[in-house]
Amino acid sequence: MCELHFDEKFIIKYDEFLINGKTERIMRERFKLKDGAIPTIFPSYPSYLNVTTKIRKSPVKRKLEVKVSN
Hints:
Layout: E1 11-19, E2 22-33, H1 59-69
Antiparallel strand pairs: 1-2
């Protein structure tokens, strides 16, 4: 599968380096997929089968956010 089948949030297009105290972003020659990347885009399928998935935060992080906002 190529990058056309993955949502942008799953693709690493830049490498980041700390140079002289400043973060520099350098575009990768070959894109890389993040761990756990799931193909969700299938151009030849009907649109109702192309569902974008939302990655949920862990229950612990969600619980902490609720406590902070209260």
